[in-house]
Amino acid sequence: MEMREQTEDPEPNNMENTEPDHKTSTEKPQRITACLVNAAFFGALGSSYLYGYNLSVVNAPALYIKTFYNKTWMERYGEPIGADLVTMLWSITVSIFAIGGLLGALCVTLLTKLIGRKGTLLLNNVFAVIAALLLALGEKARSFEMLIIGRFVMGVDSGIALSALPMYLGEISPRHMRGSIGQFNSILICLGVFTGQVLGLPEFLGQESRWNFLFAFLALPALLQLCVLPFLPESPRFLLMERRDEAGAEKAFRAFLGKKDVSKELEEVHAESRAQNTLHMASVTELLLNPALRWQVITVVVTMACYQLCGLNAIWYYTNGILRDSGFAENVIPYIVLSTGGIETLAAIVSDQYSWMPYLSFTCILAVIASFCSGPGGIPFVLTGELFEQSYRPAAFMIAGIVNWVANFAVGLLFPFMQESLQTYAFLVFLVVCVLGAVYLYFILPETKNKTFVDISQSFAKINKVPLGDKEIENELAIKAGSKEMEENGKVMSDVEMESSL
Fold first, then answer.
1. SS3 call for 367
2. What is the pLDDT of residues 216-259, one digit of tens each?
3. What CATH number belongs to 281-478?
4. Rounded CA gap, 204 and 280, in Å?
5. Class of domain 33-260 (CATH, top level)
6. Which end of the chain is more exposed for a tag (fewer CB within 10 A), N or C?
7. How far, in whole angstroms, is CA 419 from its chain's centroid?
8. What is the rounded distance in angstroms from the CA atom of residue 263 to the CA atom of residue 250?
9. What string of DSSP letters covers 287-337?
10. What is the pTM of this model?
11. Is 331 exposed, middle or buried (0-12, 13-18, 19+ CB in 10 A)?
């Protein structure tokens, strides 16, 4: 454990930084290359951009789609659909997106191993095109089932994209640019949300005769990615570590880094590969049964549940209905919705008979959005990586992803019924979740900033009832990275960090 602390990497998220930095003062800083920018932009365009677009695109045409459901029901059964049934069908249409996302997240590991990071992103466009066709043609085919299936398929696309894209971007980026390149993911999500809101305006596609074109638009970013991404390199780490293609990895490094001599990068990946080959990766079952990590797992579950159950997606999915119930005029709502487009969302709304209350409600939306962005918005997945060492991290991210998508599904499915039952008090449910989550994190979660994994595990040791001096537990917490072999080579590989897949 002492050796582990002494060799702590100052950049824990950089997997390849496994040996002392011999950078000299004469070495020129790397500049971002056109190949790297194109890979980041077009990779995100067909992935995270579509995810963001699908969060908001169902909001504007909600009334038109419900009308379509009613007409279809009348044609089939000769009677109007019940109010409760149409609410159920609509909530299923919205929330089944998360079920597809869960399925996509579960199968992405296999896909990235079989066909690579870039290959997975390219294959994923097939799901986007199929979903676009189902959603766009559902009205013409008089089939609301096509809309539900289309949302599910689009969810699969998003579940794969939100895992494969960060993996690809993390592996192609130089260490000093990893944060900036990674931002393409979050920026394109926000841009996708905003695009869905803009196209949903009455002046564009937010009309009863045009709403199906909102879903046809899904195919455009996917086709653009299909036109560009095949001409860009695969992840050099995937090529070298999993395909053993050193020539291909060298060529990819040269393209992404914009330099001829990439021997240092190749050696770092070789060292990383040697370390991973000696590492036992724990399963989800092993993680859940490890007493030394019990409260870390509980903390991840609570954090990810609060991330969704605080009302995050209730706003994206149902903004128009919420503002309509708050008292805003119908013709004003689409333009008010636009002001939330560039911000991660959370809201708490109260409304009554006073004319000024709608504006107070909207102010509350913006205030809590700002709070969300400055607090939990970017933390849950980062925290998951900090609470677990390398051998347990993949299993931890699997648990976090499952909780995230299941909670997302619950919000999408149940919120319309909560709104009907509780009306203006619906968001009090989310308020309770936020308060309970905040209390839990205040008393249980230690500060992780600038702390090693050993420090964090020791912070949890008391509540886990694990003695600090227990050798067996210390061995479980230490990274099994072939330290003997690395010491013979003058290297210490104990602190190799794994890039997350979520």
1. helix
2. 999 999 999 999 999 999 999 889 888 889 999 999 999 999 99
3. 1.20.1250.20
4. 54
5. mainly alpha
6. N
7. 27
8. 8
9. HHH-GGGHHHHHHHHHHHHHHHHTSHHHHHHHHHHHHHHHT--TTTHHHHH
10. 0.70
11. exposed
